[in-house]
Specification:
48% strand; Ig-like_dom_sf; Immunoglobulin-like; 6-stranded antiparallel beta sheet; mainly beta; 5-stranded mixed beta sheet
Length: 294
C-alpha cells in the first residue's frame, strides 16, 4: 500500500508559482518494494535536476514550480508479489517463410510487469539448441526482434524467445517456426471442361505453394492477335471466363503467385464451340498437352 503525503512544513493552500514542493511516498509492503514510480496526471516523472524534478528514494521534490505543475500526483510502488515474469502476447505471427540466404526479422512481443530487462533467443532443430548471438537481437521496450538467415536445410526449425524481468525469467518461451519459402511450382494436369459457345472453363491441379499462401491467375489471349481478353484470379486453380465469341480459339496462360513472387507460366490452347450442335457430336477437349511459356 502507498500513501502520498506533502512535506510536513508544506501548506498546500498557500502554494504559489516559483515555490518548491516536497512529497513523500509512505509505503507498507512485505516483501519490500524494488521500484517506486512517480506520476503527474498519469504521466511518469523522471529524475531531471535541470528541469527541477528531483527523485530520491521515497521522496519527490519539485523546484520553482510553474502553473503547468498543478494537478494530481501519485506514487506507485512494486514488489515481487504484485508482479510476475513475462508471458507471450497473444495474436502474434508464429510462422515465417524464408528462402535460403534470405534474412527475416521476427518480433517477439511480451506482456510483462515490470518490463523485461533482457531477451534471450535460441534456435532448435532436431533436439539441438543454439543461442542466437546478441549482435542479431534488438530490444525495444516490451518486445525484441531477431534477424535470422537460414543458409542450409538444417537452419529451418524453431526459434524460441524468452524475456527476463526483475521477478525472473519467462516460464514458457514464445515459439516461432521458420520454414522454407519460395515462389510456387507451376500448375499441372490442366483440362478444359463443359464446352460452351461463349464460356471457357479451365481447371488444373495446384503445384507446391512455396510454403506460403498462393493465388492462381488465368490470362486469356486471342490466338491470332495475341490480344488479352480476360484476366481472372482465384484461390483455387479453377476458372470460368464468360462473354466470349463462339467458334474462336484462344491461348490460356495459367500461373500462381505468393508473397515471394510469380511461379512459372503454363500455356494451353482453348476454344469456344460454334453452336450447341457441335457439342452434341462429342467433340470436347478433356486433357491437354501443356507447354511452358517462356
Amino acid at each position: 500500500m502507498t500513501t502520498l503525503y506533502p512535506g510536513r512544513s508544506l501548506n498546500l493552500s498557500n502554494i504559489e508559482e516559483g515555490d518548491d514542493v516536497y512529497f513523500e511516498c509512505a509505503i507498507k509492503a512485505n516483501p519490500w518494494v524494488y521500484k517506486i514510480v512517480w506520476l503527474h496526471e498519469g504521466h511518469e516523472l523522471r529524475h531531471n535536476v535541470s528541469a527541477g524534478i528531483i527523485i530520491s528514494n521515497q521522496s519527490l521534490v519539485l523546484q520553482k514550480i510553474a502553473r503547468m505543475a498543478s494537478g494530481n500526483y501519485y506514487c506507485v510502488a512494486s514488489n515481487i508479489e504484485g508482479d510476475d515474469t513475462p508471458v507471450c502476447r497473444p495474436g502474434q505471427m508464429m510462422y515465417h517463410g524464408a528462402a535460403r540466404f534470405e534474412q527475416v526479422n521476427i518480433p517477439c512481443h511480451l506482456d510483462a510487469h515490470p518490463k523485461p530487462l533482457a531477451f534471450t533467443w535460441t534456435f532448435n532443430n532436431s533436439g539441438e539448441s543454439v543461442e542466437i548471438p546478441k549482435s542479431h537481437i534488438r530490444v525495444l521496450g516490451t518486445y525484441s526482434t531477431v534477424s535470422y538467415t537460414p543458409n542450409t536445410e538444417l537452419d529451418y526449425g524453431t526459434l524460441l524467445c524468452w524475456g527476463t524481468n526483475a521477478v525472473g525469467k519467462q516460464k514458457q518461451p514464445c515459439i516461432f517456426h521458420v520454414f522454407p519459402a519460395g515462389i510456387p511450382d507451376p500448375v499441372h494436369n490442366c483440362s478444359v471442361y463443359n464446352l460452351s459457345v461463349d464460356i471457357v472453363h479451365v481447371r488444373c491441379s495446384a503445384g507446391f505453394d512455396g510454403g506460403l499462401t498462393q493465388t492462381f491467375i488465368l490470362e486469356l489471349y486471342e490466338s491470332h492477335t495475341n490480344k488479352l481478353l480476360a484476366n481472372t484470379t482465384n484461390i483455387i486453380p479453377k476458372f470460368s471466363v464468360p462473354g466470349l465469341p463462339p467458334g474462336m480459339s484462344f491461348t490460356g496462360v495459367i500461373y500462381s503467385t505468393n508473397a515471394k513472387g510469380k511461379g512459372e507460366q503454363i500455356s494451353l490452347p482453348v476454344y469456344t464451340i460454334k453452336d450447341m450442335a457441335e457439342r452434341r457430336t462429342g467433340k470436347k477437349l478433356i486433357t491437354l498437352n501443356l507447354s511452358r511459356k517462356e
